[in-house]
Design brief:
Elements lengths: L11 H17 L4 H7 L4 H9 L18 H14 L1 H21 L2 H12 L5 E4 L15 E5 L2 E12 L6 E7 L9 E7 L5 E6 L10 E12 L3 E2 L5 H37 L1 E2 L2 E2 L4 H29 L5 H26 L10 H8 L9 H13 L1
Parallel strand pairs: 1-4
Antiparallel strand pairs: 2-3, 3-7, 4-5, 5-8, 6-7, 9-10
This protein binds flavin-adenine dinucleotide.
Flavin-adenine dinucleotide binds next to α5, β1, β3 and α11.
Length: 384
């Protein structure tokens, strides 16, 4: 295993970010979030406000208009937002880690100058398209093709389950430029909304994360200039795996926030709700649940901040980010489940927050690689 020190102190910036999000969330998110959830509204004006706070370009250096923070601050930002509303946390994570993150890590200077300032301020919303209807976990087997014709590529195919598939102003899209089965046969393109042959398809009607838009991208003879390729032809899939190493830390942070939110709501309720003439927290059956929830959250937090710290120190975090994502996402589901249980019948209604945490948490074991795929990444790493 990797030996490394980790700074367990919460930094000043993290405290400042947490406070800022708590204040912002109580005014701008909490009063509206159930309405967004019911109607599946993706609240674009809210994301512009998050952009003004620096939360849509957390990792983007100042020179490109971002906040210039590291992963530790990024984890704090996503988990604090997700403690309030997981779907806002998911959209923020996809915009920052996937679309913006891909451009930040692998684009050339001209592309960075053109796109990062718009993305970091949320003037533009970003999307990232890897998954296809028939290739999710097996993304390397994708069928969307990009065929070179002079200075252009002609792209045909479809991507599905894409966060901000409809509302995104720009998408980083991975398409096949070589043979099926060749991990160097795929290329990443930056494609702007409005490009001929590029359109959005079906918007998904989801169990949870309902204020985060998830939709299909369709490419029909979509002509993209070679200047929109990120890096070199053939590097797209390998770049994507590296983008996901960072992205998984953000899903671990999302999971952590949902678990904390579900726990805090259940803790408060357990002290207020009386049965048999005492608060339900006085029953050992309930207090032991709370003890287990708190312990799991602490462990998930340590794994997540450790992966973030290693990433900030320039280490390869494929294994550590997969471990953090696997553990934290399963913890989010378990804690949210116990949260509903502690609320009893009220937990099953929309009058209390427990049911939303429960619905939102499940995405965390699926998006950016399922729990089974995280085990594949971890086992390959420990067996090599
Ligand atoms: C809300 C939401 C937002 C998303 N946002 C994006 C986005 O912005 N961009 C993007 O590109 N994608 C996005 N995705 C797609 C997401 O990453 C995929 O759904 C995920 O990777 C799983 O792929 P799949 O749905 O095709 O499931 P499948 O790959 O079909 O998996 C089905 C089941 O089989 C299991 N399985 C598959 N292969 C193996 C194996 N080798 N060993 C053991 N078990 C296996 C899986 O773990 C799972 O349980 C999003 C998905 C959702 C639901």
């Amino acid at each position: 295993m990797t030996d490394s020190a980790i700074d367990f102190e919460v930094g000043e910036n993290q405290e400042m970010i947490a406070k800022m999000i708590q204040d912002f969330g109580s005014k701008e998110i909490k009063p509206f979030m159930m309405q967004w959830d019911e109607s599946q509204e993706f609240p674009i004006p809210l994301f512009r406000k998050l952009g003004a706070l620096g939360l849509m370009g957390v990792l983007v250096p100042h020179e490109y208009g971002g906040a210039g923070f590291g992963y530790q601050e990024y984890v704090t930002a996503i988990s604090e937002l997700s403690k309030i509303d997981g779907s806002i946390g998911l959209s923020m994570a996809a915009h920052n880690s996937l679309c913006t993150g891909h451009i930040l890590q692998f684009a050339n200077e001209e592309q960075k100058q053109k796109y990062l300032p718009k993305l970091a301020t949320a003037e533009w919303i970003g999307a990232w398209g890897l998954t296809e209807p028939n290739t999710g976990s097996d993304a390397g087997n994708m069928r969307t093709v990009a065929v070179r014709e002079g200075d252009y590529y002609l792209i045909n195919g479809a991507k599905n389950f894409i966060t901000h598939g409809r509302s995104g102003n720009v998408a980083v899209v991975i398409a096949r430029t070589g043979n099926v089965g060749d991990s160097h046969g795929m290329t990443a393109f930056i494609i702007e909304k409005g490009t001929a042959g590029f359109s959005a398809g079906k918007k998904e009607n989801k169990l949870g994360m309902r204020a985060s838009e998830t939709a299909e991208l369709i490419f029909t003879d979509c002509r993209v200039h070679k200047s929109q390729v990120i890096g070199k032809e053939g590097e797209g899939f390998v770049q994507s795996l590296k983008v996901l190493d960072g992205g998984r830390i953000s899903i671990a942070a999302l999971s952590l926030g949902i678990a904390k939110g579900a726990f805090e709501a259940a803790l408060k309720y357990s002290k207020e709700r009386h049965q048999f003439n005492q608060p339900i927290s006085a029953f050992q059956g309930i207090s032991f649940k709370l003890a287990e929830m708190a312990t799991k959250i602490e462990a998930a937090s340590l794994l997540t901040y450790r992966a973030a710290s290693l990433k900030d120190n320039g280490k390869n975090v494929s294994r550590e980010s997969a471990m953090a994502k696997l553990f934290a996402s399963e913890v989010a589901v378990e804690v949210a489940n116990e949260g509903v249980q502690i609320f009893g019948g009220y937990g099953y209604t929309k009058d209390f927050p427990a049911e939303k945490y429960y619905r939102d948490a499940k995405l965390c074991t699926i998006g950016e690689g399922t729990s089974e795929i995280q085990k594949l990444v971890i086992s390959r790493s420990i067996l090599k």
